[in-house]
Amino acid sequence: QVQVFGLYSAEEFHETFDCPIKIVAVHPQFVRSHFKQFVTGGKKLLLYERGWMNRWKPSVLHEGEGNIRNVKWRGHLIAWANNMGVKILDMISKQRITNVPRDDISLRPDMYPCSLCWKDNLTLIIGWGNSVKICSVKERHASEMRDLPNRYVEIVFQFDTEFYISGLAPICDQLVILSYVKEISDQTAVECCARPRLDIVQPLPESCEEISSDALTVRGFQENECRDYHLEYSEGEALFYIISPRDVVVAKERDQDDHIDWLLEKKKYEEALMAAEISQKTIKKHKILDIGLAYINHLVEKGEYDLAARKCQKILGKNTELWEFEVYKFKEIGQLKAISPYLPRRDPVLKPLIYEMVLHEFLESDYEGFATLIKEWPGDLYNNTIIVQAVVDHLKKDPQNRTLLRTLAELYTYDQRYGRALEIYLTLRHKDVFQLIHKHNLFSSIRDKIVLLMDFDSEKAVDMLLDNEDKISIDRVVEELENRPELQHVYLHKLFKRDHHKGQRYHEKQISLYAEYDRPNLLPFLRDSTHCPLEKALEICQQRNFVEETVYLLSRMGNSRSALKMIMEELQDVDKAIEFAKEQDDGELWEDLILYSIDKPPFITGLLNNIGTHVDPILLIHRIKEGMEIPNLRDSLVKILQDYNLQILLREGCKKILVADSLSLLKKMHRTQMKGVLVDEENICESCLSPILPSDASKSFNVVVFHCRHMFHKECLPVSNTVSPVQFCNICSAKHRGPGSAILEMKK
């Protein structure tokens, strides 16, 4: 009997035949009315086709080679296996295109039947005994046809397996093989049937690579033979069915859930977590959070507390309840310090109690760690008052602990008690004191602490005070520094550098401060200041014997002779004296310098070398006494002559340049005056003020145009009283601008 039922249609077929049916295969598109065909196998391979009046018409496709025990139909190709081998029939040409003989003829074909399956429309997989062949159906070239079928089969892979094949199926580019296994019993030393195996192998040209292997436990496997097992597969669902006399086993590809189960079983939690994150849309059994929590517990059990705490950030995310639960768990095992760096500080924020608990833990055992947390954590995470009180209690035991004092100042800052914070910072001489003052505008609190700030960092303190004069006046700062003149000088010096006039009332005081603490800057101060009393400055400089400063003050007060005398007598520096005389540019001063130097040969040498461009050297040379020995006199005289020659050359060069420029400009003026002048209807006669051109252009007219661009009708020009034929513009002559150049006369 052959019965066909449509699972998703009303198709139903039932027929009784007069011969035993070993195997049946329906047309792949049997559901369509034009393809109502199926083949049966027994002693013959019969094709049944529905014909006229819905009657089935049989036709013999093959016979005479024993029972046909397996048939597979794919597309237009039918493959079947009998006692001799495997044949393939092309249903289009109705030609048999190949015969693949079986390898091991010693095996009974009824006990070790052939397994067939189509991988695709052109690839047939054959398993028989322990041999696997993968055959590819190909088109024959037209030149090779002759009387041969238009298709042929090529064996592309062939290999042997360890056990006998009961079934096979394709999976991607690999094979699933169901194997019948025999083994020697350890107890009786007799060969017996073992559990069947389901292997996945990767075919190679002459061998195969085993990918996985599973032994299947089915009921009664000890009594089964190779022919009792079958492997079928559902191509669309990727399901494989292992059929035995008493069981049907369904196999399917392992998914990510199976993979994660295996990883968790092997305690590979990190890999399991990564796999779950990658496949979070496809996994069904597992949740990322559950795997993560299991991973954290595993790390805690191993004692890897820091790693466990670090993983909390990623795994717990924004779940505050889980965060708090984990924090309490870390507290129970005494590892609050491990989780503290990873606690969330923004989105989410935990209960204040959690953060306070961690801070108390650090305060009891690690002051530096406590200070770090206070600096890193925002002040609104915990109750500031409670933490301040705890720190104050600890300071009672150790009042000089700088770490606790610095932390207390930060807590006061969070609590906006800036005055107390400032006192602690100043006591500690902490670098953040200036930042605190600026940030919170604490200038009113530092009016009486200016000396402390200056002692701590005078540069920063002075800059801050000068930048905020509107909040702390200059007078207040000077008053506060009255007993510390060295600091007072630093402040006033910086003030003077910024603005020469702001602290003018203190310039007299600054003379003494510069003289006492900063002599190098005294002379620049005297030069730049217009408010310091010169008499007072001169008195101080003379008392301290500051020669350079005294010279400057004498010259500024108009006593240049005394200044020059001091340079010559005190400094004995002829170069400086000459420089001073050059600056003053006073003939009498040069005379004094020559008189003072005339009996000092080194001074005479210096004057001869430098005087040439300011005073006639002859004046000095005539006064040199005969017989006086002057060092380097020859060189000095040569230099005077060279300087004189240089001056002559410069004058001649300048003269040539002036002459050339004058000539060039004269030529340019001549070219300009030789150019024509535009005369149109808009121009008027400067005498009669009527248009210079007549309205009737046909009439004759005379016009006189001067180079100064003034225009006249010829009859409007006054008659010249001079005999000279050259006329001048009356307007320009009246304004004393000089005569116009030669005139242009237009006639028509």
TrEMBL record:
<dbReference type="InterPro" id="IPR057779">
    <property type="entry name" value="Znf_RING_Vps41"/>
</dbReference>
<keyword id="KW-0813">Transport</keyword>
<protein>
    <recommendedName>
        <fullName>Vacuolar protein sorting-associated protein 41 homolog</fullName>
    </recommendedName>
</protein>
<dbReference type="GO" id="GO:0030136">
    <property type="term" value="C:clathrin-coated vesicle"/>
</dbReference>
<dbReference type="InterPro" id="IPR057780">
    <property type="entry name" value="Beta-prop_Vps41"/>
</dbReference>
<dbReference type="Pfam" id="PF23411">
    <property type="entry name" value="Beta-prop_Vps41"/>
</dbReference>
<keyword id="KW-0863">Zinc-finger</keyword>
<dbReference type="InterPro" id="IPR016902">
    <property type="entry name" value="Vps41"/>
</dbReference>
<dbReference type="GO" id="GO:0005794">
    <property type="term" value="C:Golgi apparatus"/>
</dbReference>
<dbReference type="GO" id="GO:0030897">
    <property type="term" value="C:HOPS complex"/>
</dbReference>
<keyword id="KW-0479">Metal-binding</keyword>
<dbReference type="InterPro" id="IPR001841">
    <property type="entry name" value="Znf_RING"/>
</dbReference>
<dbReference type="GO" id="GO:0005770">
    <property type="term" value="C:late endosome"/>
</dbReference>
<dbReference type="InterPro" id="IPR036322">
    <property type="entry name" value="WD40_repeat_dom_sf"/>
</dbReference>
<dbReference type="InterPro" id="IPR045111">
    <property type="entry name" value="Vps41/Vps8"/>
</dbReference>
<dbReference type="GO" id="GO:0016236">
    <property type="term" value="P:macroautophagy"/>
</dbReference>
<dbReference type="GO" id="GO:0008270">
    <property type="term" value="F:zinc ion binding"/>
</dbReference>
<dbReference type="Pfam" id="PF23555">
    <property type="entry name" value="zf-RING_Vps41"/>
</dbReference>
<feature type="domain" description="RING-type">
    <location>
        <begin position="685"/>
        <end position="733"/>
    </location>
</feature>
<dbReference type="GO" id="GO:0006623">
    <property type="term" value="P:protein targeting to vacuole"/>
</dbReference>
<dbReference type="GO" id="GO:0009267">
    <property type="term" value="P:cellular response to starvation"/>
</dbReference>
<dbReference type="GO" id="GO:0034058">
    <property type="term" value="P:endosomal vesicle fusion"/>
</dbReference>
<keyword id="KW-0862">Zinc</keyword>
<keyword id="KW-0653">Protein transport</keyword>
<dbReference type="Pfam" id="PF23556">
    <property type="entry name" value="TPR_Vps41"/>
</dbReference>
<feature type="repeat" description="CHCR">
    <location>
        <begin position="462"/>
        <end position="606"/>
    </location>
</feature>
<comment type="similarity">
    <text>Belongs to the VPS41 family.</text>
</comment>
<dbReference type="InterPro" id="IPR000547">
    <property type="entry name" value="Clathrin_H-chain/VPS_repeat"/>
</dbReference>
<dbReference type="InterPro" id="IPR011990">
    <property type="entry name" value="TPR-like_helical_dom_sf"/>
</dbReference>
